[in-house]
Design goal:
438 residues; Zincin-like; 15 helices; 4 strands
C-alpha cells in the first residue's frame, strides 16, 4: 500500500469498497470458468491436482513473503526519509518557495508522497510480475505504470487536502488536533465513497449499461435484488471491462444513496453460468443488506480515532528524542509528517489481524446471505455455490490448507476449504430456519 497522509481515509475506503466476489485474501483475485458437460460432479471438499497444488503453494508463499516484506520495507522507507533529512530538505524547499501555507503544501506533500512511493515501487513491480507469472493478470507493463501514475495523482490530491487540514488543526490546537482532524476527515470519507463509482472507478476501467447486451441477466438480477429488499433499477446496473487487465471475475454493489450501482465484470459474464453469477452477486449484495457498510464505517472510524490518538502521543515522544537530529522543529512542522506516517504504518501493520478477523466474519455472513437469497431462485443453490468456490480456488491458486498463522494475520476471507465445508453442511430449510432470508 502506498503511504501518504491520506492513509487513514484510504484504509477506510479500501475496507468499504466491494471486495472481489468470493475471493481469497492477498493481492490476487479469483478467476473461474463456466462448467461444461465434461465436468465431473462438484467435489464436496476443496482440493487441487498435484501439479496445480505445487503451483498454488509456490504462488501463495511468494505473496505471503511479499506482504510482510512490503510492510517492513514501507516502515523502513519512512524511517530512512526521516533519518536522512530528506523530509527536512523538502520542507526547506517548500518554505523557500513561498510563505503561504497552501503553496508550501502543493510543493512539500507531492514530493514526499512521490519520494516514498518511488522507493516502494520495486515491490509493486515484483507484485505485478507475480500476477503475470501465475496468470492472474494480463495487464501490459505500460498500462500498469499508467494506472500507477493515476493512483499517484489521486494520492497527491487527497494528501494535499488532508495535510492542509491536519496542520491547520495542529497549529490551532496542539493538544486536541487528533480529535478535530478525525472529525474533519469523516465527511471526506463519505464524499470519497459517494464519488468513487462516478470518478475513481472510470479512471481505471470502462463501463457500459449491463442491459445493453445482457437484458436476460438483468431480469434475473432484479429478482435477487427484489428478494433482498433493495431497490436498484436497471439503469444502475453496469458491465465493467475487466478483461483488458485481469483474468479475475467479480460482481459487486458499490456507492451508496444516489450513487449505488450493480457492477458485473465482463470476465464473469464470459466464464460463469447465470446461476453462479446470481450467487456471486447475492454474496456481495449481502454486505449491503446486512449493514456491513455502515458497521465497517463505524468500526474503522473508531480504529482511525485510536490511531490518531496514539499518533498524537507517539509523535510528541519521537520529536522529543529525535526531533533535533531529524531537523524537525515541532509537530506543526511539515517535516513531521513522515514521523506521523511511520506511526500510522506500524499501527496499521499490528492491527491487520484485528481488521481481517472482522472482515472474515462479515464475509462468512455474506456467504450465508448469498446462499439464502438465491435459494428457490436457482436450482440446487448449494451445489452451485460449491462449484463456484472450487473453480475460483483452482484458477486463483488458493492453498487448500493454508498456514494457520498466515490465515489469522492476512486472510480477509475464510479459506476456500472452510467455505466449501460450510456450504456443504448448510441446510436450514430442512427442519431449521434461514438466518437472513425467510
Amino acid at each position: 500500500m502506498k503511504i501518504c497522509l491520506a492513509m487513514a481515509v484510504v484504509l477506510a475506503t479500501t475496507m468499504l469498497m466491494p471486495a472481489p466476489a468470493l475471493s481469497q485474501p492477498g493481492p490476487s483475485q479469483a478467476t473461474a470458468s463456466a462448467p461444461t458437460s465434461e465436468q465431473k460432479e462438484t467435489p464436496r471438499q476443496y482440493s487441487l491436482p498435484p501439479g496445480k497444488l505445487e503451483k498454488a503453494i509456490e504462488y501463495s508463499q511468494a505473496r505471503y513473503w511479499l506482504h510482510f516484506a512490503g510492510s517492513v520495507w514501507g516502515i523502513a522507507v519512512l524511517a530512512l526519509i526521516l533519518a536522512s533529512g530528506v523530509s527536512a530538505r523538502l520542507r526547506d524547499w517548500a518554505e523557500a518557495a513561498s510563505r503561504r501555507r497552501f503553496v508550501q503544501a502543493l510543493i512539500f506533500v507531492p514530493l514526499l508522497v512521490l519520494a516514498n512511493d518511488i522507493l516502494e515501487l520495486p515491490l509493486g513491480i515484483y507484485g505485478q510480475h507475480l500476477e503475470l507469472k501465475f496468470e492472474q493478470s494480463v495487464q501490459s507493463w505500460p498500462s500498469w505504470f499508467w494506472d500507477w501514475s493515476k493512483e499517484e495523482l489521486l494520492s497527491f490530491l487527497l494528501a494535499i487536502l488532508l495535510a492542509l487540514i491536519l496542520y491547520a488543526v495542529i497549529r490551532r490546537s496542539a493538544r486536541r488536533w487528533w480529535l478535530y482532524f478525525w472529525l474533519s476527515a469523516l465527511p471526506i470519507l463519505f464524499v470519497v465513497m459517494f464519488l468513487e463509482p462516478y470518478v475513481i472507478e472510470p479512471l481505471f476501467y470502462k463501463f457500459e449499461p449491463l442491459a445493453a447486451k445482457h437484458q436476460a441477466l438483468v431480469d434475473e438480477l432484479e429478482r435477487v435484488v427484489a428478494r433482498g429488499g433493495l431497490s436498484i433499477p436497471p439503469s444502475r446496473m453496469f458491465e465493467m471491462k475487466a478483461s483488458e487487465k485481469l483474468n479475475s471475475l467479480n460482481a459487486y454493489v458499490s456507492g451508496f444513496g444516489a450513487s449505488k450501482r450493480v457492477v458485473v465484470w465482463d470476465t464473469t459474464l464470459d466464464r460463469l453460468t447465470t446461476p453462479e453469477i446470481l450467487f456471486v452477486f447475492g454474496h456481495e449484495m449481502g454486505h449491503y443488506v446486512l449493514g456491513h457498510v455502515r458497521d465497517t464505517l463505524i468500526f474503522l472510524a473508531l480504529l482511525v480515532l485510536a490511531l490518531l490518538y496514539i499518533g498524537y502521543h507517539g509523535l510528541n515522544r519521537m520529536l522529543r528524542r529525535w526531533g533535533a537530529s531529524w531537523r524537525i522543529r515541532d509537530a506543526a512542522d511539515w517535516a513531521s509528517l513522515p514521523a506521523l506516517l511511520l506511526l500510522f504504518s506500524i499501527f496499521s501493520f499490528l492491527t491487520e489481524p484485528l481488521i481481517n478477523a472482522y472482515s472474515r466474519n462479515q464475509e462468512h455472513q455474506a456467504d450465508v446471505y448469498g446462499l439464502e437469497v438465491v435459494h428457490g431462485i436457482i436450482p440446487n443453490s448449494r451445489a452451485v455455490a460449491m462449484h463456484s468456490f472450487q473453480v475460483l480456488g483452482e484458477v486463483d491458486l488458493d492453498e487448500p490448507h493454508p498456514n494457520r498463522f498466515i490465515e489469522f494475520w492476512m486472510y480477509s476471507h475464510p479459506s476456500t476449504s472452510e467455505r466449501m465445508a460450510f456450504t456443504d453442511g448448510y441446510d436450514p430449510w430442512s427442519g431449521g430456519a434461514p438466518r437472513y432470508v425467510k
